[in-house]
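User: Study the fold:
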Amino acid sequence: MTKWSLKNFGPLASSLGLPEVMRQKLKKAGIPITGEEYSALLLSASIIIPLSVALLTSLALMLLGTNLLLIFPYFTIIALVLFLVAFLAGYAYPGMKISELKKNIMNNLPFATIYMSTLSSSGMEPVQLFRVLSHFKEFGEVSKEAARIVRDTDLLGLDIATALEKAADRTPSSQLRELLWGIRSTILTGGDLNNYLLQKSRSYMADYRRFLDKFVDQLSVLMEVYITAVIVGSIFFIIMGTILGLMGGGQPLLLVKLLIYIGIPIMSVMFMLLIAGLSPA
């Protein structure tokens, strides 16, 4: 599929400049595919899938006896809408992956740095430090990045300074990038690595506490908005709609049913997604 997409959609992707845009995002997201391959796959999926769905829908409408003059507008609208949805979803996926990795690193880096400081205080060499850290899966993406550093030194034969430079270049987290560059500088200048890690762990932990405090404040505001706008507002609308429906017809009652079965669930899901996006977990 990749070779076919490159052959048929690679030139179009290159003319649109997609490989250059996606290359750095894919690197930061840790997606093991080139910008050319991803762009070609994105275009092929965004074109073939919508056209296939639109064609099948048109055939179904023909079998149901729909006027042929109406089928072409349906085909066009379905194909365009699905193309936009598929293309935008594929285009945004690396960015979403990067955000997920940043959040994971932010949650684990303060504790991983404390652990690294403890290991360093015992006189452990930097490479061995990252080797031990890579075995602790509790630190999430930080442990995975440590494993990549060890892989670069063991399999590729890179020295620790070069391996740290590569890791800093590919990580999506500015905090982890700063830490890796600092470790590299400390090693090259012969500084006190244990003291550096201890200071950074305190700094990251303070930042993490401030982030949690900010999240709690945001959560309090969102809960007040939810209670006022969704719960109280819905109760008021239901009461007024029921009274008006009993007095003058069924239209207000229909609106009440739509609010109960569709409106409230949609608003609740939207608030849940908003909270999930702000949450540190």
Observations:
- The mean pLDDT is 85.
- The longest helix spans residues 193-248.
- The chain is about 85% helix and 0% strand.
- Residues 104-206 form one domain.
